[in-house]
């Protein structure tokens, strides 16, 4: 039996025309399809074929604008080389910055927790009430917002 190694790529989505305190209207399916289209454009059929097996959008948070992409070890280089060239996701003009490439989902989430704690500290100064702060913390630290349907479709 062969063990397949995965890489988890943590990406921050920078959208200059949407204020930081408003969530992005971004669906993981659109993000996933846009990334595959860019890989097709840059690396052709070989790139798409090598990336497709095991390629999932594991996590996408509209509030903190962070996404996690799972790819196989080796073809993950096609994914990481295509990320900076994505300028539009759906109707949004964006820039994608790679924050972290990890071997396990556990370490990737640890990295995101540190990153989101720093984000919370910077945003708390801008909020006025405790209720707003609690709502922001709940939205930022929510790691359950994954699109299960797209992951099931791609596995079948």
UniProtKB/TrEMBL annotation:
The keyword Nucleus applies. Keywords: Nucleus, rRNA processing, tRNA processing. Its main location: nucleus. It is found in: Nucleus, Nucleolus. The keyword Nucleus applies. GO terms for molecular function: ribonuclease P RNA binding. One of its GO terms (cellular component) is nucleolus. GO terms for biological process: rRNA processing; tRNA 5'-leader removal. Belongs to the eukaryotic/archaeal RNase P protein component 2 family. Component of ribonuclease P, a protein complex that generates mature tRNA molecules by cleaving their 5'-ends. This is Ribonuclease P/MRP protein subunit POP5.
């Amino acid at each position: 039996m062969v063990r397949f190694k995965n890489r988890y790529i943590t990406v921050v989505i920078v959208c200059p025309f949407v204020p930081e305190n408003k969530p992005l209207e971004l669906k993981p399916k659109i993000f996933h399809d846009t990334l595959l289209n860019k890989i097709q454009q840059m690396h052709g059929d070989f790139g798409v074929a090598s990336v497709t097996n095991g390629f999932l959008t594991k996590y996408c948070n509209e509030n903190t604008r962070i996404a996690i992409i799972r790819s196989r070890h080796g073809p993950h280089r096609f994914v990481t080389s295509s990320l900076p060239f994505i300028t539009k996701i759906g109707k949004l003009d964006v820039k994608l910055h790679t924050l972290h490439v990890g071997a396990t989902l556990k370490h990737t989430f640890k990295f995101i927790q540190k990153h989101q704690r720093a984000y919370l500290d910077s945003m708390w100064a801008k909020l006025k009430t405790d209720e707003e702060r609690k709502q922001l913390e709940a939205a930022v630290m929510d790691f359950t917002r994954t699109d299960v349907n797209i992951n099931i479709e791609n596995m079948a």
